[in-house]
Amino acid sequence: MKTYIGIDLGGTNVRVAKVSETGEILASIKSASYGNEGVEKVLSNLKSLVREIPNWKNCIAIGIGVPGPVNTKTGAMNLETNLPGFQGYPLAGELKKEFGMPVFIDNDANVAALAEAMVGAGKDFSSIYYVTISTGIGGAFVWHKQVISGSHGFGGEIANIIVDRNREKINYLNVGAIENEDSGTAIVRKGKALFPQEDIQHAGQVFQLAKQANPDALKLKAEIVRDLGQLFATISCVVDPEAFVLGGGVMKSADLFFSEVIESFKTQSHTFVGDTPFLMAECDEPGVIGAAMLPMSQGL
Amino acid sequence: MKTYIGIDLGGTNVRVAKVSETGEILASIKSASYGNEGVEKVLSNLKSLVREIPNWKNCIAIGIGVPGPVNTKTGAMNLETNLPGFQGYPLAGELKKEFGMPVFIDNDANVAALAEAMVGAGKDFSSIYYVTISTGIGGAFVWHKQVISGSHGFGGEIANIIVDRNREKINYLNVGAIENEDSGTAIVRKGKALFPQEDIQHAGQVFQLAKQANPDALKLKAEIVRDLGQLFATISCVVDPEAFVLGGGVMKSADLFFSEVIESFKTQSHTFVGDTPFLMAECDEPGVIGAAMLPMSQGL
Asked: What are the chain B neighbours of A297 within 8 Å (beta carbons)?
């Protein structure tokens, strides 16, 4: 059975695993990533972790997931996001030189999507659009088990899609961008403004207040539902995936709001498209498993 | 050299051509399609046209483009649009039985996009998103020379993407759907309302009035530019194509408005993505050429 090294490199932690071609984790190590200590420290730590994996030399390739968009052609990160110094650094090439095997790189949302498409909720579908609603909102399109990362690594970077022009300017993203309106961060921001007496810490609290028929919470929830329904309808117009797969912390409160999002999606979509299934992500460790699956998705 | 039969079947006309693997039209016949006279008449006419192509038996496969979304799995049209009776009719299967060769079917916008990707403006790119701004607004995503038609044949059916919720209800499409706001039909509708004294017949006249600094025309043009810029920015967020290829009648007036659409796209996109090229469609006969390319794109 073929085995692969999967690396999930974040700003705070890094996880390295040996993964089988069926997505089973055979060995795994977690460590601090030393993201703030610069490229050299991050790399030397990463290299020694790989060498700790039993029989790592028997693996046929390495896959690595990193935060933010990646130039899959040069094997470098486009934006350093949580890993200062890594913008433009040839990370894939450096690991290839070190370990003498092919190295593939993509961003963490794309990698998680690939895990879902290969061995998770999307494994029986020929195409999925993965959407994660968490601190931010990200996604990835996986078609015939290949991530469509896009020309600049921005395929699936849906955070900046405008759902309503008539909102406030929040940050560098477009006015009315979905991430500023309907991510976990955005829902907490709006919840805190509406309910200063409550200690709003996560999106689920807003949906709970709506469940208790609080009129302001119901109104906010209706806006979120419509925004997200529109986002999914827009994605379907662009690529019409066979299924949506949903991940991210906000989806932990799915039972409090998500059936209404699906209804909203239907009312904003052509009849035929309205039957597209929405599935919950299933992988426990999509970061390392998806990273390990990158080489396989490229034919290795 | 391999040759293919390409069929461009519309509600009014049908064109059948023998096309080489490099996209050259070797023989071609045009006829009325008898779209209003029912399935039997349309098919008997189509079959005799194919038999008129010299040495049609030497062609290795048939590709057919039809109006509206197609179920590429069943080889049938999802909506009959301009061809009454054809909804759900197994058109590809019927032609396969008749001519004893593989038959592939897709909608006309997808087929035109494929022609551009294979032998037209997009031939040097690994992925293109084709957008046609004409009576309606359509599109198609072609990735590694394969059309991503989508699960229900609605991939690229971008007409229904909402660009601004705060518009009028026009028809069955979403309020603020791009087709109702910025297609040729929509621009003429708005132009007629604003300039009843002018005989507005096509979008170019509105852009001409803007060029003459008519304040109402400038305002309308600014809205169109922003809407279209947002549409392209949205598509880039979803799949980040290597290039956009533009077709359709409204693009005949490109010099009067389109550079501003590209600027608007840039202001609504991440910096990296802003350099995505916008190319004008190049194929003279994308309908038959693209149809003929369908089998090739599937490996034949």
From this structure: none
Contacts of residue A2, defined as CB under 8 A and 6 or more positions apart, other chains included, come to A20, A21, A60, A296
What pairing do the DSSP bridges indicate for beta strands A127-133 and A137-143? antiparallel
- Give a yes or no: residue B23 inside a domain: yes
Q: Is residue A183 part of a domain?
A: yes
Question: For residue A288, what is the domain's CATH number?
Answer: 3.30.420.40
| Rounded Cα gap, residues A47 and A16, in angstroms | 10
Nearest residue on chain B to A127, alpha-carbon basis = B151
Q: In angstroms, rounded to a whole number, what is the distance separating the alpha carbons of residues A77 and A149?
A: 12
Whether residue B81 has pLDDT greater than 80: no
Q: Which domain holds residue B82?
A: 3-113+284-297
Q: Flag if A160 and B241 touch (Cβ within 8 Å).
A: no
B88 and B213 housed in the same domain: no
Q: What is the pLDDT of residues A152-172, one digit of tens each?
A: 999 999 999 999 999 999 999
Give me the residue from A151, A235, A237 closest to B240, CB to CB: A151
Q: How many CB pairs under 8 A join A and B?
A: 145
pTM across the whole model: 0.94
Looking at the structure, do residues A13 and A51 belong to the same domain, yes or no?
A: yes
Which residue from B141, B154, B158 is facing A273, i.e. has the nearest CB? B154
